[in-house]
Amino acid sequence: MTIIQVPDSPKPVGHYSHAIVSNGQVFTSGILPIRIKTSEKLTIDTSIEEQLSVVFDNLTQILAEAGSSLDKVVKTTAYIVDGEHWGIVNQMYASYFGNHRPARSIIPVKELHFGYKIELEAVAEL
């Protein structure tokens, strides 16, 4: 088992890692729209599009550090506040993955940490 920490990024405040590599797979922690290199938190009134953009940027950096990439993602779970964001999330998600179609769950929830609109976790192959 290998702990993944994106270089030059602050260590997570909570008791978790950016990701864990185990048995040829990468398991990310939940990724919020907080810029991974600077810990800059987007404001809660930032659009879902901007929040998702930061989340996917973070995911890309985490996967790269682990030796993987978006085209090796096998499963994602997205937690969204308010089902009205479903269409936007689906459209942007498709733009990031292109022809690659990982298994996916989108789960509407009442609220997320810091008042954000989205949190994403992923499992990828190496």
Your description of this structure?
By secondary structure, the chain is α+β, with helices and mostly antiparallel strands. It has a single domain (2-125), classed as 60s Ribosomal Protein L30, Chain: A, CATH 3.30.1330.40. Helices cover 25% and strands 28% of the residues. It contains 2 helices and 6 strands; from the N terminus they run βββαβαββ. α1 (48-66) packs parallel to α2.
Question: Main attributes?
Answer:
single chain; 60s Ribosomal Protein L30, Chain: A; 126 residues; 6-stranded mixed sheet; alpha+beta; globular
User: Helical amount among residues, as a percent range?
Assistant: 10-25%
- Assembly type of the shown chains? single chain
CATH architecture: 2-Layer Sandwich
Report how far the terminal alpha carbons are from each other: 13 Å
What structural class is derived from the secondary structure elements? alpha+beta
| Main sheet makeup | 6 strands, mixed
Radius of gyration in whole Å, from Cα?
14 Å
CATH topology (fold) name = 60s Ribosomal Protein L30, Chain: A
